[in-house]
Amino acid sequence: MQKNVMKWLEQYGLDFTDTYTTSLIVILGLILLTALVIHFILHRIVLTRLERMGQQSQRLWLQVITQNKLFRRIALTIQGIIVNIQAVVWLHPGTQAGDILILCAQLWIMLYALLSLFSLLDTLLDLSHRFSFASQLPLRGIFQGVKLVAAIIIGIMMISLLIGKSPLILISGLGAMTAVLMLVFKDPILGLVAGIQLSANNMLHMGDWLEMPKYGADGAVIDIGLTTVKVKNWDNTITTIPTYALISDSFKNWRAMSESGGRRIKRSLNIDTTSVHFLSDDEHQHLMKSQLLAPYIDAKTQELTTYNSQQHTDLSSPLNGRRMTNLGTFRAYLQAYLRSHPRIRKDMTLMVRQLAPTAEGLPLEIYAFTSTTVWAEYEDIQSDIFDHSFAVIPEFGLRVHQTPTGNDMRSIGHPA
Questions:
Q1: 216 pLDDT above the threshold of 60
Q2: Predicted structure pTM score
Q3: Domain 202-255, what fold?
Q4: d(CA 281, CA 185)
């Protein structure tokens, strides 16, 4: 093509040197003009309309594509391809100007092809968040790994193009630097492997409640990346954990609790053991007024009466026979109260049990599950249950064990 331009210029009486230089300038000008026209058509007309359609469209995929600049980067890649084709067709092969222009065009194509791949991966990642089955996969870490590999490959190809050597030579030379590369890319490699293991073993999903005291993490997972996992703690701080630490160290995932629909209450009341005694007749009559306790007391009284009569027990001594205690009756009351509570799951474990006595008294533990996993609602239910439990303890003649306070000591020193 350049020879044709030179012949055309020689027809107007120009010598060879001026003809060559002028033809080169004309061709470069045509290439530049063509590039500008194509740029104007693509960016001012086509892409502007596409972006306007994306903003107004109800189609999610079109909105996401326009937001991640995928079309713009593809358009710039196409412009580089067109310039490269023009340089090959119009300029003399092997000339300095042609080689420089082709080199720049190829570098341009590689760069924007890489950026287009990045935009495509970002688009797929944004779309995956809209689907429940894909949003639980560690796609961010996998895509970041793909970006890293693609960037390395393109970087090697660009360097080989600049030095005029085959990429295979550079790749073979990198074999000697394997130890250095493993050290430099240790975290990305470990993070990629950890992300695959987390996904394959269904260990961690976006939105899971993760608790990892070693790193001070106690909150919801908001991001699973190639090298880090971000946890938004309940105090609204962000904790960053290395992805591979979730494989090498242990952590607690509360997802199963959320999926079960019930959250466990496991808390104790410390009873003063000196307040435990057999029920008197007055206490027996008083507790019979409770609608929750009346069936239990009737059944228990009949059971004890039958047993003692069969054993011919002498009930004149409290050491003989079986009797009802205020602690056992209180435990039965709490169990009946929990079974009648509308916010306690009846299909899950529900019990009130005694633990081993300690210096702090006799722990009476409530073990049950609420019908909700919402934190605030769970705390309200648990607080209501223990508010009621502390309030009714005196009705059974029991006392709560409490370490003496300064006010207790002053009362001892200055009795009323």
A1: yes
A2: 0.55
A3: SH3 type barrels. (2.30.30)
A4: 79
